[in-house]
């Protein structure tokens, strides 16, 4: 066992004993999930909720999920006693020390999709890493549709094409 000084994500330096000094900062925090005192297991649902909330925090995300999951979500919102499903459009695989995330979404029209995806990846990786200590190996983003502002304008009835 060697004694070392490590820098955390917050930039603070701490001294402590470590068996494996070759891991990255994120991996160092994930090693806290399994140690000589026991094991901490994090359910897939927990990671999916964190990823869903982190994705919704990014400007330019209109909704999560493909058309079928969004339709089910709209029905769920109408039923009393049910709330918004924050895991809609999010699929995760969680191991002992790592997680992989797939996100399907609808982007607002006019948003640079490549920048939106990069912002989502960064926010999801940081949120999962900070809250769980898991190393996020990948965040795959699929844009299913683009939302147009005029799609929300249902107040004016459409004129019939024929009489």
From TrEMBL:
Record InterPro entries: Asp23
Region described as Disordered: 1-36
Biased composition (Polar residues): 23-33
Compositional bias (Low complexity): 1-18
Superkingdom of the source species: Bacteria
Membrane-spanning segments: none
Family, per entry: Belongs to the asp23 family.
Protein name: Uncharacterized conserved protein YloU, alkaline shock protein (Asp23) family
Protein species of origin: Williamsia sterculiae
Source organism phylogeny: Bacteria, Bacillati, Actinomycetota, Actinomycetes, Mycobacteriales
């Amino acid at each position: 066992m060697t004694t070392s000084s490590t820098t955390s994500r917050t930039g603070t330096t701490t001294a402590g004993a470590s068996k494996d000094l070759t891991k990255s900062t994120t991996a160092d925090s994930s090693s806290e999930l399994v140690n000589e005192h026991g094991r901490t297991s994090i359910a897939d649902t927990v990671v999916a909720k964190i990823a869903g909330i982190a994705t919704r925090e990014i400007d330019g995300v209109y909704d999560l999920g493909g058309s079928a999951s969004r339709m089910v979500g709209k029905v769920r919102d109408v039923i009393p006693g049910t709330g918004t499903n924050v895991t809609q459009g999010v699929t995760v695989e969680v191991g002992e020390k790592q997680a992989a995330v797939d996100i399907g979404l609808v982007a607002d029209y006019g948003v640079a999709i490549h920048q939106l995806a990069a912002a989502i990846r960064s926010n999801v990786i940081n949120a999962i890493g900070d809250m769980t200590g898991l190393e996020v190996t990948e965040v795959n983003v699929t844009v299913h549709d683009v939302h147009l502002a005029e799609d929300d304008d249902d107040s004016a009835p459409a004129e019939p094409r024929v009489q």
